[in-house]
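Model it.
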Amino acid sequence: MKNILKFKKLNKWVIAIMDIGLIMLGFYGAFMFRYGFEPPARNFEPYINLIPFIILFSFIYINIYDLSEVIKKRISDMGISIFLSLILLQITTVVLTFIFRGFAFPRSVFIISFVLQFLLLMIWKAILIKLTRKIVGIYQVMIIGDKKESEIIAKKLLIDHKESWHIKYMVNDYDFEKISEIIDEVDVLVVCPKLEKYKKSKLVTLSLNKNKKVYIIPELYEIMLVKSQLTNFDDMPGLEIEQLQLSVEDKFIKRAFDIIVSSILIIPSLPFMMISAILVKLSSKGPILFKQERLTINNRPFNLYKFRTMVNNAEKETGPVLATGNDSRITKVGSFLRMTRLDELPQLFNVLKGDMSIVGPRPERDFFANQFIKENNDFGYRTNVKAGITGLAQVYGKYTTSHEDKLRYDLMYIRNYSFPLDIVLILKTIKTMFTKSSSKGLENDKTLQQLIKEQDKIVFSEVGATSNERKTVFKNGI
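Modeled.
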């Protein structure tokens, strides 16, 4: 194995400390630039007094937007994360100056410091990302599971990590001895969800013994084990699995937070709602708002509101149909509204009314919910909490994400719910408005073979994947 694990263990605290140091240097440089290297004590002291708070919030935003994660990040994605982190930090610092009455803190310094901090962090991150890729190289990956799941997962890995992930082997016909022979040639194992439990257990043990990274796409029982409580029966340890729902206290806090946040957000959102309404009206015939019955907590139906993104009466001929990546029913304005999530803004009124929450699983239609439950009974657990405007599936997925993957995100959210998690997901949602683009949809239309050829690392054959390095094919397996 190469230097991956050693480099992976590079302490993220070191990167975070360097990031904070550059942020503080940006503030200091702004004062020097503004006052010709002799800032008056009256103006400089408010900054000195706020340093502990600036460091604290810098660390918070660095973690929320994953600025310390450099191995998998693209430079463009890092730039958006840096931009949003610094914007939030500047706003927070302005608020702090009012709270601590540091009115002598020059407003011009915020603008200058933002520019300096952005340039310093971008240069530092670009160097770090390129250096990391050079040292680490490319992850050699083995995917283990049935053919259908393996190909879906391989496609997603190549779309998101084509610069740093190399699908070396795809094991469709489980053979532990065969896997043991070639595991030293890979760095990462990815285990498909439907693989039997005892096989997963053996693979985890093998990976730990061989010091390999292993990723498991979880099933419900594996999600339920998260945050399980340790208990004991006499001298025998056990795990207590709690119900997949929120406590009374959590529901109260969440509702209070929803009322406050929706009330505050409606006012600054009004200009965006007006612009969206005008664009919808001018771009196509039909109503501005789209109303549809959806399901929320305890399968209770309610009317969801959003800006219309499809042609009027889109389901008149087809009946209920899920939207696809290149759905011809979606208008050009509708595509933009979906990409930026502006079409969801009217749902702030659904939140204020109590039908929805700011954060939670997206509300589904009864027609599709019944279909999904027939395929997977676990789908019913989504309505153990109120439906939400945003959530894990909206932050890490997209409109075309499969309902199985959305279900995994939703169940993970319910199992891991906390008030700070809601705050983090709201802030991360801001980033999705800048990073979700049609380019991913275009890549999603490509076949696995096309993506592999583009990477020019593996040639696919009828019986599996052929490694250019080993020149070996395992029939019905690798």
